Amino acid sequence: MGWSLRLGTHLSVRIASSHEDGRYTTLKKDWGGVKSPMMFGFFMIQAAAAFIFALPAYFAMKHTPAEWGILHMLAILWAIMALGGETLADAQLKCFAKVPENKGQVCKKGLWRYSRHPNYFFEWLFWFSFPILTWGTPGFIPTLVIPFIMLFLVTRMTGIPPTEAQAVLKRGDRYRDYQKETSAFFPWFPRKLPENTDAPTPQQ
Q: Which of 9, 36, 118, 131 could be cross-linked to 111 through a Cys-Cys bond (beta carbons 3.0 to 4.6 Å apart)?
């Protein structure tokens, strides 16, 4: 419920305060005359993925013991930690975007210094609360496998690739440098870029 409220509120505010998502605008432009059937197929794939990603909650409700225990506490603490990280990442990006001087710049503040997509990372962590709940039950393996399917989709197909393609279009070399410096998904310390040796040296 907390995850649904957080995501629903975030999307509602973003949609109400801005134009169409730039990723969708780019897709429709690329697809040209077949954009309508292609967009329909695109969203149907997302609907199918949403069904698959709802399965951990189903298995958790079906197989988790009704009696309150240590697994319940661990799963709740894990979910709170993940939701807190995701909410913090969204808030940091929102605060950065509100500053007029930051228009066209790349957010490298807070969690965004260590991951180019900390919101995706913490959302992915959230789904591991379900394997914790189903530990030792028939639902454990399905709830453990699904987050890794999500990891593949987010990092290779539907999440990071189109988001970063749009970011490069909007921010150019600034974002390319950010890609070289900062881990795409798993938070890690930023890399130091080599100095530009092509720059002219001052005359003696």
A: 118
**Given this model, what pLDDT does residue 136 score?**
87
Residue 204 has pLDDT above 50, yes or no: no
Nearest-angstrom CA–CA distance, 21 and 165: 13
What's the pLDDT at 18? 61
CA distance 181 to 32: 35
| pLDDT at res. 61 | 83
Domain ranges of the chain: 52-181
Residue 39 · residue 28 · CB < 8 Å: yes
Residue type, 161: P
Quickly state the pLDDT bin for 178 (edges 50, 70, 90).
very high
**End-to-end alpha-carbon separation of the chain, Å?**
67
> Is 164 within 8 Å of 26 (Cβ atoms)?
no
Q: What angle is formed at CA 191 by the lines to CA 120 and CA 126, rounded to 5 degrees?
A: 20
Question: What is the rounded distance in angstroms from the CA atom of residue 129 to the CA atom of residue 144?
Answer: 10
